[in-house]
Amino acid sequence: MERSLEKVFNPGSIAVIGASEVPGKAAERRTRSLIQGGYKGNIYLVNPKRDKLFGMKAYHSITEVDKEIDLVMIIVAPRFLASAVADSVKMGAKGIIIITAGLGETGEEGKKIEAEILSEAAKTGAYVIGPNCSGMFNASADINMLGIPTINKGSISVLTQSGNVIDSLTHFATIKGCGFNKMINVGNAVGVQLHEYITYLKDDPDTKVIATYLEGIKGGHELVRVARDAAKTKPIIALKVGKSSAGARAAASHTGSLAGDDIILDAAFRQAGIVRVSNADELVDMAAVFSNCPIPKGNRLVIMSEGGGDNSIAADNAEKYEMQVPILSEETQEKMIPILLAGMPAHNPIDYGGTAEENPDVITQCVKTCMEDDQVDGILITGFFGGFFDIIAPHIAALEEQTAKDLADLVKKYKKPLIVNTSYARDPIKSLGILKEAGIPVIESSDRAAQCMSALMHFAVNQKKIKEMHIPEEKVVERAGVKELFRKVTAESRHNLLETESRELLSEYGVSLPAAELAKTPVEAVEAADRLGYPLAMKVVSPDILHKSDAGGIKLNLSNANQVRAAFEVIMKNAGKVAPRENIVGTLLSPMVPPGQECIIGMIRDAQFGPVIMFGLGGIFVEVLKDVSFRVAPLADEDIDEMIREIKGYKILTGVRGEKAKDIEAIKGVLAKLSEIVIDNPEINELDLNPVIVHEKGLSIVDSRVLIG
Amino acid sequence: MERSLEKVFNPGSIAVIGASEVPGKAAERRTRSLIQGGYKGNIYLVNPKRDKLFGMKAYHSITEVDKEIDLVMIIVAPRFLASAVADSVKMGAKGIIIITAGLGETGEEGKKIEAEILSEAAKTGAYVIGPNCSGMFNASADINMLGIPTINKGSISVLTQSGNVIDSLTHFATIKGCGFNKMINVGNAVGVQLHEYITYLKDDPDTKVIATYLEGIKGGHELVRVARDAAKTKPIIALKVGKSSAGARAAASHTGSLAGDDIILDAAFRQAGIVRVSNADELVDMAAVFSNCPIPKGNRLVIMSEGGGDNSIAADNAEKYEMQVPILSEETQEKMIPILLAGMPAHNPIDYGGTAEENPDVITQCVKTCMEDDQVDGILITGFFGGFFDIIAPHIAALEEQTAKDLADLVKKYKKPLIVNTSYARDPIKSLGILKEAGIPVIESSDRAAQCMSALMHFAVNQKKIKEMHIPEEKVVERAGVKELFRKVTAESRHNLLETESRELLSEYGVSLPAAELAKTPVEAVEAADRLGYPLAMKVVSPDILHKSDAGGIKLNLSNANQVRAAFEVIMKNAGKVAPRENIVGTLLSPMVPPGQECIIGMIRDAQFGPVIMFGLGGIFVEVLKDVSFRVAPLADEDIDEMIREIKGYKILTGVRGEKAKDIEAIKGVLAKLSEIVIDNPEINELDLNPVIVHEKGLSIVDSRVLIG
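The joint structure predicted for all components is written out below.
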C-alpha cells in the first residue's frame, strides 16, 4: 500500500504554476533551485505569458501538459489560486504546494479562498501544503523547491511554521557540518497538518530525526498521539517559541487558572517523548547528535579529559542536565589504572593528565575500557582533543588522527554514544574531520555537549518507557445516566453542575465519594445527620452560588442536632442574600473527613491539546508555589505515575516530619477514572476535585466542581 | 602611595632563576615568552650551569646581578626553592613568582618548604605568588611569563587556580576576538590571596573586567568584602566549578544541614555582585561583553530583527534570563511606525520584516529611536545582520558596513549596551568587524547573547544597590555578660548552650523573647505558671538532652495547675531515662504562643565564608522544598531584604488564602540582631532559632539552640 504523502515527497513529475525568470523573485528562486537541484523526473513550467523559461518549454496552462502530474507548486496571486488548484487536480496532482501568501493569515477574504482551495482538492483527495509556505526540499529525490541555492544533505528532516527559520537552520547546518533529508514549511497548514507529516516521516527510511520549529500548535491532541508513536523509532526535536507570551488563561476553575499554555505544551511534549529546545542553533546541534549517535541504554555518563578543570566543568554540566556520573566499578577502575599516570583519578571523571597530549592513544584505551563496561551508557571527552598538535608539537597530529580512527571503530563496535567537546571543534583539523565523518559529534561548547548527551540519554529512558506503555484507547463510551444528567443541566441553561450532580457523574464511574445527603428542610437535615453520624459539614446547594465559602454557605464541625438546625437556618439565610429562594436547592451534609494531605485533581479542555489532567498538592502548594503537573488524556499508568512523582512536594506524600505515607495508589485510581470520564464526555470543559484529602488509606473527595460547555 | 602589588605587575626588572633553553621545558617556554614579549625593563637569566642563554649573559646566581631586582620568577627543584627565595629577597625582590610544583599540594614535605619560603619572604614583605603556578602576563608592561606564545591583548584581567584554564581562555579569546590585560595563575596561593589580587585589579586603570576561574575558595569572607567593593566600579565574572561534588555538610543544626557548600557560595557571590558562569567559553564571552559594553541603567530590553521567529526566540530567552521586554511608550511607537512596513509590530519586539535586508539603515533608525527612549536600557538585534549581502545580493555589503558605523556612533553617543546576535558572527565579514572594533558584541548564539545582556542588566541593578548600601562595620564588640556565659559553658566542657543560656545570649542583644521561667520543682512550676498565665508549654532543660521532643521532654497546651504538676513529673521521669539526675536542670515554662507562620532563622560558621546567616519558612518548606536563603554576615539592610524576598514561599508572608500579612519587619529585626551577634562572638559555630512563629504583629522565638566551638 502506498503511503499517504509518498507522492508529495517523491513525485514522478512536478509542475510549477507561476514559474518565473525575474531575478530575485520568490518564484524565480524556487524554479531555479528546483531545476538546478538535479531532480530526475519531468518538470513542467507554467506561465501564461511565456513560451520558454530557463531554456525549457513553458506551458501557458498546466492543462496543456500531456502527462499526469504528481506534484504542483503554485506561486500565483491569490485571486488565481482556486482555478490553479482546480486545474492541478484535473491533471491528477497528488500534492499541491502553495507558496502564495496573503491568504488566511490576512483576513476573511483569504480564508474564503483557502476554503475554495480545499474544496477543489477534496474532489480527488489531493494534499494541500501551505498556503503561505516557503516550499519543500527532499534530498532523496533531489528536489529543492525552497529557493535556497545550497542545502547540505543529511538525515535530518525538518517541519517548520516559519520560512525564515529554514534559512537559519540551513546556515547553521553549513557552519556545523550536518545536513537535511526533507524540509517542508507547513505554512498556514489548511490542508496537511503537522501530525500527518510526522506520520509520514516516522516511517521514512531516509529520515533519522525529525526537527521541527513551531509557533503555535494545531491538532495538539493528535500530535501527542502520533509523536509518542514516532518516539518508539525516531526522535522528534522541537523548537517551540512563545513561552514568554503564553500566560495562564482566564478560567472558572482552579485547574484552569494554573494551566498556562506553555506549561501544558511542555508537559505534552514530555509525555510524547518530544525533545524540546529553545534556539535554532540548539535545534541543529541536537538534531545532528540524534541523527548520528546510537541511542544509549540509560543516563550513566563517563567524563574524561587531560585536565581536572575541564572535568569539573563537565561534571557540573552533567549535574545541570541531570545525568549520572557514577563511580566506575572496581573491575573497570582496575583496568583503567595501568592506562593512566600513577595517582590520576580513574573513578570518573577520568583524568589522563598530560599523557594524552603526547600520546593520544591513552584516550582510545580509556574509551575502550568504558565501552566494555555494561554500567556505562555514554562517554564525553572534553578538553583540547584535535588541538594537541597545536599546543604540544606538529607531529602529534598524526597520532590524533589515528586516535580518531580508533574511536570511530569503538563507537561502531560498541554502539554507545561518544561526544567530543573541544575548543578546536570548528577548526579544519583532520583528526576532527575523521570523527565527524564517523558520526561522532565534535562540539565546541561544553554546555551544549552536555545538553546533547543528556537529551540522548533521557530520550533513551523515555523511549524505553513508551515502548512498554499501554496507552488506553480513545474510545468514547456513552453512559446513559451521565448523558441524561447533562441534558437536564443544559435544558436549565446551566454550565455548572450542582455538587449533587458532580457527585452523580463521579459515582457513575465508580469514583468513591464520602457519604452525603441533600436536605431541603431543617428536619431533613437533622434526620440526615443522624444517619450520617457526627461531626458533620454542611454546604449550600444552589446553581447561583459557585463560591460557597464566600457566600457564607459552608458550616463545619457540626456536632449535634441543634448545631445542624442552626447551621441550616444560617446557610439558607446567607444564601437568600445572593440567590432567589427557588434557586436554593438545599444543603448537602457530609461527615467531617479525617485529616490527611490536601490535594487537587483537575481537568481542563485545552484549545491545543484537548483534555488535560492536573495533579497537585493543595493549599499553598497550588496557590503560592504552583506545584502542579499536567498530562494530556488518555493517561497511561506511566503518565499517572510521572505526574504524581514530578511535583516538588512529592516527598510529602511518601511521609515526612513523622507523618505516615499517604495512599498514592488511591490518587492513581482517581486520576485513571478522571481520564476515562473526560474522554467519554467531551461535554466537560473543566473539572476540579478540590480539596481531595488523601489519608494513609484511601482518600476523601471533599468538594467537586464540573463545568460543561 | 605605591599600590601593593604594583611592582609585581609592573616591575622595573625581572630575573628568572632556573632559566632554560631546553625546548619544550616549562622554564624554556616561559623564559622565551618573556624575552619575546617585548618587556622594556632588564631581564636577568639565572642558571648555575650556563654562561649564556638565548644569546644573553646568564648569571650563575641571582646574587651576582649588580642591580636591584623587582620581580623574580623561580623554576627550580623544590629543594633549591628556599635558598632561591632567600637570594631573591636579598636582591630586593618585591615579588616572587614560583612556578615549581610538587609543594604543598603533594604533602607535608612540600608544606614545610612553603613555610620556609614564606618566612624568607616575610623578612622584607616580598609578595609570594604560587608555588605551583603557571606564571603571569601583563599586556600593559609587555610581560608574558606564561609560556604561551601569543596572547590577545585587551582589557580583561584573569585570576585563575588552574593553568589549563589559561590555555582554554586564551584559545577562546583567539576564537572570539577579545583579549587580556593581566593574567595570573595564583597556584597554591600560600602568599598572595585571591582578594589581594582583586584589591589591586579593582584600581588598575588597564583592567576593565576581572575574570576568574576557581576550584576552591580561600579567604571567602574577605573575598565577599573586597569583591563587593570592587563591584562599585568593576565587574567580576567567576567560573567556580565543583557544584556537582559539593554536598551539604554533616552538621548538628538544622541550618547546617541545609548549608550546602555551593548553595552558600552562590549566595555569597550574588551578595558580592560577582557574576557567576559555568563554562570557559561563557567566561570569555561574558568578560568580553563587560569589557566593551556600557553598563545599563536597568533591565528593560528591546529586541529587533527581520523575522518574527527570531524575535520570538529572543523574547523567550529574555524571559529565561529574567529581563523585561516592555511594550514601548506610545511616543516611541509613533516614532517607530513610519520606519517600519505598514502593519509590522512596533511595540517590542520590533519586526522590520524584509525591509532591513535590502535597506539596513532601517535598523539604525530603529536603534536610534530606542536609544532616545529613557525607558529602554539595552537593545538586542537578532537575525542575520552581516549576512544580508549573502542572502540577498552582494551590493548590500556596503550598506551593512555603513549601518555598522552608524550603530557604533549611536552606542558611543547614547551609552546604552547593544548586542548583535547573528549566525554570521564568526565569519570574516567587514560590517561585523566594524561592530566588533567599536566594542559592540557580535554573538553567534542567541542564548548566549541574551545571557550576556541579562548579566549586564542585572549587574547594573546590583551595582546601584551596592553603591547605596550601608554595610555594617565588622568590628567585634565584646559584651561581658556573653563572654562570661561562654566561659561558664566551656568550663563545663560543653558546646551546646542550654535553652536558658541561649535566651540569655539573645536577651543581651535585645532580641525579644516570649516570657519563660525555669522551674526545678513541681511547686516552682505551678508558681511560675501562675505568673506566666495559661495555657503553657513546658520543656526539659538539660545539657544532655539535645532532642527534647524525642526524649519526651516537651508538653504543650497545659491549662491548669494539675496539668502543670503532672507534666513536670512526666518530663522529669522521661529525662531521667536518658540523663543522670544531676544533669537535669529543670523545666522551662512558657506561655503557648498565638498561631502564625512558622519560620526558621539560623547561622553557621562556614569554612570558606565565615559566619553565614539563613532564613526560611519552617516545616515542609525547609524539610521538603529546602526553600531557604543565605547571606554572609555582616548583613546590610539590603541583604536582609533580599534574603526574605528570594525564598519561593515569600508570598505566604505577605498574606495568601485569606491570611493577613505577617510582620516582616520583625523578621528583619531578628536577622539584623543575629548578624551583630555572630560578628561579635566568633565562639558561636551554629545557631538555630526554630521555630520562629511570625504573627501579624511581632514574632515569637519558640526555641533556640546555640553551639559554640
